[in-house]
Amino acid sequence: MHSITRNTMTSATARTQPPAHLKRRFLFTYTLLHLPQKDKVRFFYALKGRDGKSGIIKTAKIGQLGKTVLLVDAGRAAELRDFLRYWRCTPSEQEVWMHG
Fold first, then answer.
1. Do 82 and 90 touch, CB atoms closer than 8 A?
2. Is the dihedral of CA 16, 18, 20, 24 positive or negative?
3. CATH of domain 20-99
4. pTM score, two decimals?
5. Contact call for residues 28 and 62 (beta carbons, < 8 A)
């Protein structure tokens, strides 16, 4: 690939490596349309916690950006994938690089 600002060629690998100050995270979206209402309630208890028990959001330090949108550090993404797989959710997953 050609860099206009430097008038040089850059490799694809150099282009895909983020700056060192950014952290790798994953953005997950999912749907619960396949679950009956009683299982949706159970899912949200497992997600957020209930009766003094912590849900996966707290234990895995997951950020909830919307009702069905979750942001997780790359090191905890497999845990969230397993959780969603257990509930038969097929998430959409996007790698993102963020500050902090």
1. no
2. negative
3. 3.30.70
4. 0.78
5. no
